[in-house]
Amino acid sequence: MQNIVRPDLNKQGYIFNIQQYSLHDGPGIRTIVFLKGCPLQCQWCSNPESQKFHPEVAFNPNKCIGISECGACVTSCAEGSIQKTPEGKIVIDRELCKECLQCAGSCPAQSLHVFGTLMSVGEVLKKVESDSAFYARSGGGMTVSGGEPLSQVDFTTTLLAAAKKRRINTAMETCGLAPWEDLASVSPYLDTVLYDIKCIDPVKHKNFTGCSNDQILQNFSKLCAEFPGLRKLVRTPLIPGFNDTEEEITAIADFIRDRSHGEIEYEILPYHRMGQAKYEYLNREYMLSGIVPSDLQLKAIQESAKKRLVGN
Questions:
Q1: In the chain, domain spans
Q2: Domain covering 12-52+116-309, topology
Q3: pLDDT for 227-266, tens place per residue?
Q4: What's the burial of 277, exposed, middle or buried (CB within 10 Å: 0-12/13-18/19+)?
Q5: Apex CA 41: angle with CA 298 and CA 60, to 5°?
Q6: Contact 252, 304 (CB under 8 A)
Q7: Spatial contact of 72 and 90, defined as CB atoms under 8 Å apart
């Protein structure tokens, strides 16, 4: 492993959440650090607040007191982007909003909330290390997620290097869409990489995520070749109407098997709509509203993928 003697603990990055006690994003009990910014716009994304690269205001109308009773946000907005609805509550005109964030600071009911806070590596590690007792017992550690962590590659590399220096087990969730040099720069500081491969067809991938998957697949092939000792867990969210067929998953399983010689783990994740409400808070449309997944179909495809990976 390359050696960074003194990682810069003052280096800053935009974080939108730090989630403790996770059991699903790497080995053991983990703390997940969610970074802002992602080059993809997946139609099923459960963290739409992660996509933009800067802090943004979200509005939960269910918490709003109302303009007649409060109105503090209207007074604080110099752009006139906060306007009154017929019901006496507020709506944000996103075309006028400059994301100055003043309204969120003035809201007593916290119906206005900012996604994205500038934090230093040292501040993040202080939060992560507060759970060190759980890591020691469970074999857990820190997982960097997003958004896409490689969108803030300097911060992510420094954070991972500092964590390794403190003997914290590290993992990173990535969509793989970044320059190869960026993925290569963080890999020496990782114990596990959780790598999303959503489908093999580049045209379909672009239609549903906004980008082709050419670089994603190329990066995965290079990762297997140049970092063979790095634990790799490939994950595919099973999305109705996108990749929920045996043919789609078989193509992914074959791609993995050809590069891993049976050494890479593969997990198919069930589709869920747990982040749908946040689209409303951000005045965005949730593209897959009304889709109902099939548990039986999920199990059948999972079994088919397992057989394919072992060559049966």
A1: 12-52+116-309, 56-115
A2: TIM Barrel (3.20.20)
A3: 999 999 999 999 999 999 999 999 999 999 998 765 789 9
A4: exposed
A5: 95
A6: no
A7: no
Q: Does domain 56-115 have CATH number 3.40.50.10490?
A: no
Q: Name the pairing type of β-strands 90-92 and 117-120.
A: unpaired
Asked whether 83 and 90 are in contact (CB, 8 A), the reply is yes
- Are 12-52+116-309 and 56-115 equal in CATH topology? no
Pairing state between β 12-22 and 30-35: antiparallel
User: How far from the centroid of its chain's Cα atoms is residue 172's Cα?
Assistant: 10
Q: Which amino acid is at 73?
A: C
Average pLDDT score over the chain? 91
Query: In this predicted structure, what is the pLDDT of residue 272?
Result: 87
Give dist(CA 126, CA 185) in Å, integer.
Answer: 23
Return the H-helix or E-strand segment holding 273.
none
Q: Give the pLDDT band of residue 312 (cuts 50, 70, 90).
A: low
